[in-house]
């Protein structure tokens, strides 16, 4: 019984909301792209976010060595919380490579985003895998 309660709490706390609505994967991608295109966000993305993601190259190379690895393009959405942690990570399509990379992203902590209208900063990473 305690395990199922823990599982329900986990599900409730990992959903992403906007205007009291759970967002779909595609809605999260669109929201992240809108925020990233905002001129006031460019400095944070250019100086902090992009270099941090670029530094995950070795992790991606390791993901490509895993069983069932593929070079299929994938999209990953997440939020960067006010402590600089990547939370609410999801990806599509559900490939082994995308799943592996999502674990690398979950372990990443970067400079916290500037204070904004969101509790966390929605982001999207669209990966074209070139081994």
Describe this structure in words.
- There is one protein chain.
- The chain has 131 residues and is an alpha+beta fold.
- It contains 5 helices and 5 strands, in the order αββαααββαβ.
- The N terminus is likely disordered.
Task: Pick out its properties.
131 residues; alpha+beta; disordered N terminus
Instruction: Give the overall shape, derived from the CA principal axes.
Output: globular
Hey, roughly how much beta strand do the residues contain?
15-25%
Classification by helices and strands: alpha+beta
Estimate the helix proportion, in percent: 40-55%
Kindly report the average pLDDT value. Answer: 82
| Largest sheet, spatial ordering of strands | 4-3-5
Largest sheet: 3 strands, antiparallel
**Alpha carbon gyration radius:** 15 Å
Q: What is the string of SSEs from the N terminus onward? A: HEEHHHEEHE
Q: How is this fold's topology laid out?
A:
Layout: H1 2-13, E1 17-18, E2 21-22, H2 25-37, H3 42-54, H4 57-63, E3 74-80, E4 86-92, H5 96-106, E5 121-127
Antiparallel strand pairs: 1-2, 3-4, 3-5
Short description:
The chain is α+β, with helices and mostly antiparallel strands.
């Amino acid at each position: 019984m305690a395990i199922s309660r823990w599982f329900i709490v986990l599900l409730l706390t990992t959903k992403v909301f906007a205007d009291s609505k759970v967002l779909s994967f595609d809605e999260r991608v669109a929201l992240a792209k809108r925020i990233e295109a905002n001129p006031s966000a460019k400095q944070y993305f250019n100086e902090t976010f992009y270099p941090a993601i670029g530094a995950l190259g070795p992790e991606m190379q390791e993901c490509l060595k895993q069983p069932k690895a593929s070079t299929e393009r994938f999209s990953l959405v997440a939020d960067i919380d006010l402590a600089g942690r990547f939370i609410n990570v999801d990806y599509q399509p559900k490939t082994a490579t995308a799943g592996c990379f999502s674990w690398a992203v979950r372990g990443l902590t970067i400079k916290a985003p500037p204070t904004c209208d969101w509790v966390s900063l929605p982001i999207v990473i669209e990966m074209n895998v070139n081994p």
